[in-house]
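Exercise 7.
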Amino acid sequence: MSGELYMPAKANGPVPALVLKHGSGGLQGPIGTNIRKWAATFTGWGIAAFVVDSFGPRGITSTGADQSKLSSWADVADALSALKVLAADPRIDKTRIGIVGWSRGGGVAWKTALETIRKSILADGVKCAAHVVFCGGAEFQYRDRATDQSPMLFLHGEADDYVLIGRMHEFAD
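Solution. The predicted structure, written as tokens, is:
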């Protein structure tokens, strides 16, 4: 995992932050450009943004045609590692770090809310303050649905023919 940290230009004291998690297209081309535009938008609002790259360091450009190129759990571990790095940065308010994920990254955004998963990677009590899921998949449902109790926002389009809304809607309910 590697990442790019975007800080607000006029940060005054510890600022809130967001972990930004890409989907199957990684950070190459227009998708990466759009995620970096989101980072710039957030910093304009006074929020730091940490753009996580789970593919580049592993020599992966895309998983769109083959999701088995990288376990989704590696993505989750990367996102939680980014959370831990941000929480240790004195410029960041560790109680106000959220996550935003798109498609494959949206699945990561909701999985980081599951307590069993979070606690298996982070033992120090750090957690996301909010989870924003754009078109995230919920192809697997877990028996243990205990969450970190932080707010979750699910955004999805019914016309999405790659990540179907049905199971995500069921999970969100």
